[in-house]
Amino acid sequence: MEKWTPKHEAPEPLEGPVVSTIVGGTILWFVLFLAQLPFYGWFADRGHTWWVWTPLAGAGLGLIGIWYVRGRDAALKRHAAARAEADAQTAARAEAEPRSEAQASGADRHTA
Where are the stretches annotated Disordered (predicted)? Predict the structure, then answer.
């Protein structure tokens, strides 16, 4: 059975300040944890201590996220630099080839 929705190309992924976004979110989770910590007794009396530990878990996952996105960002920069270097070498070779062909054809004219 065919799908009723038409096929569309997937849009390019959005790239933005990913590292700073993850760092900001992690800081927010830590602040929420610290803000709720003085009320631990109140949460414990009502059986809602998970409210205190949830922001701490979010902050811990945020630390893992910071490690991941910093590595990803570094890998993207390395890849872009390597690609730019390869493009520059390709352009230099392409620029050098027509000159050598022109010199060779010019040399043929002088010898003929």
Answer: 87-112
